[in-house]
Predict the structure.
Amino acid sequence: MNHFLLPLLAETPLRRTFEFGRIRTNSDWILPIVACVAVLLVVRVIYKRDAHKLPRLLGFLLTFLRSVVFFALLVFYLQPQWRCEREVVRNSQCLLLVDTSSSMALTDASPGGEKSRLERVKTALTAGEFLPALRRTHDTLVERFDAETAEVANLPKQSESADSEASSAWTAPWTPSGLETRLGDALLESIRLRGSEPLSGIVVFSDGGQNAGVLPQAAIAAAQDAGIPVLTAGLGDVEQPANVAVYRLDAISRAYPGDPFTVSGLIQGRGPGLEGRSVTVELLQRNGGLDAPGVVPGSGTAIGTKQVLLGTDGEAVPVRFEVTPTETGLRTLSLRIRPPADDRNPKDDFLETEVDVVDRKDRVLLIAGGPTREYRFLRTLLYRDSSMTLDVYLQTAQPGMSQEADQILDDFPATREEMFAYDCVVAFDPNWRALSETQTELLESWVAQQGGGLVVIAGPVYTGEPIGGWVQDPKMQRIRDLYPVEFSRHVAVWEVETETADEPWPLDFTREGLEAEFLWLGDTAVASQLAWSEFKGVFSHQPLRGPKPAATVYARFSDPRAAQAGEQPIFLASQFYGSGRVFYIGSGEFWRLRALDPGYFERLYTRLIRHVSQGRLLRQSSHGMFLVGQDRYSVGSTVDLRAQVTDARFSPLAEPTVELEVYLPGGSVRPLLLQQDPTRVGAFAGTLTVLEEGTYRLELPIPGTDERIVRRLRVQMPDLERQTPEQNVALLRRLAEETGGVYYADLAKAVDPNDPESIVNRLADRTRTVVLAATPDRLWTGQHLLWLMLGLCFLLCLEWLIRRLAKLA
């Protein structure tokens, strides 16, 4: 019974009633009484025979005494007891379900479209008289739903003079962050939990974008069985206007003179009459960044033109251009369409990105405890990549051993000049104990202060060494601090730290893993998920205690037998460490991707290396660096922000905060304070929740200087939520009509208490009074049954005494 749905609004005085505990049906009392009557008749017959020589009065006295004993036993068997009862008023209840999926962040062309769909719902519930009017009759429960359902507020019934708490449900902000809309699941769960309660109705505020989970037909049947009407208030444009948009633009952030690179994009047409039509797509280029003075967005010199045939409604059609830069410098690339005449939204006719053409190559160091297959494949790949310079340090190599590398090291870098020359270090199950204390400090300083990128790959030899390895060595704490995971430190002698399965198990990606573009094997999220779904998986993983508090888990080992405390083992995870990144891989088995496509292995490691080393590759100021988790996010995501800042004298900035300027897609500016990391002077951290689709510009002014560090984020709607952004009127109407509810096309009418057809006036008052019976009075029952037993003993003793005096057997 729900604690919220059973308030005691009025307590009546206790009412005491007498009852027999064993009587629940007619057979419970008829059979015992018939048996008792039969026994009494037998008693009378026996005493009539035994006492025929005694005076009549004495015979009747003996018969009476024995009959009273059996009658008392009947009463004892029926369990006489007193019970207290209380009448409880159970208020009528109303459940408000609010859609918080990503599509609720959209704004519409219809009236009221200046606010997002979710903002309109919040305003309707908090600013008007709807909620106070509803609470005069009903207890009100507010829940949000998207991929999951969660309670937002419990609002008990109030009198007309007590409406001040109505807005307390929204002290914590709602965010349209769900990647899916599971309307059917939300309704079924609500009906299951409250189907037996006095629920007057379920009110759904949604655009009806059901795209995952249980079909709403099951919820309709459940609502019909429970007699619960569903009222639906529709949000969003009913019809999607004709529009052609540049849906996506992808290009590398750094390029090199003479090296060609690919610029890819997606063109999407929505609305009637667009399928099969041809549109012109241009790739434009101009010197300078996106915010160069006097630049018109979407402008530039055309360096490529293609014709694209639009697909079915909502289908994203790919387009690719190959660009070969000739000169160094910052360039802005713009992918632009020449829209048809009936295009309704010119704002999405182009997307822009920056490419920095530099002469400097990425410097990568591979360190390996042994020549594993993963190490050999990656070494060959990077050595043949013209955009990278590769050095290798194989700890088990013999002096003079030949390897494909620009430079072969005999030892790990031991000076700042050597260490700080690298942008990324990839470590394949290294023997960290072979490093000196100076080398360990250099590695930690390079990551934390210089923004170095570190990729660590676990293995069975050194990471999985059960006894005496670096994982258990107290002197290796600085190395363990770099890892984004916590190791199991205490193991028995016979335990093996690396667990291996008999068959491959696919990776189970988290939401963060699905959104992380540096882990994509395809050009889009859908193509990447399809490619990963074809990957049979890996055999081994490293047992861990769990992720560190600031770490992000991207994927887990999916074998259910390996779960500990209800969670699968971590296989991919990362964390910021100071101004650098550290990425953890559970075992070196991504070479198995080559069986599907050799390009998968190349794309995964190339993107991963550039991702973790972006702190050095994208450094814009000599006074610091500014990092974000990735360049592209879904609406509703939380962005981790990290900065390493020095003052005008190049000393770590000792201020408690630095102010970040966030330029929203609409043009407004919002300040955001980054807090000082208490463990590291000059390091600052913060988070940003992105709620609008478009490009965010983040600018970090360096205190005491004229320098600024600028980063840009592209925020877009998840693919599932983008497919059907218009309101699903048919579904919302069906939910309402087939359950006895009402569909509201006008939100203002739905929440207007003065309208006779509004939600408040269509919900019936289902308040009812329930009689709650308390447990029987055990004290009274025990005392009275004791006296009854004493009385029985007295009667039997008296009968025995009279029989002895009368000389009966």
Summary: Confidence is low (pLDDT under 50) at residues 1-11, 161-172, 491-496. The CA atoms of residues 303 and 752 lie 56 Å apart.
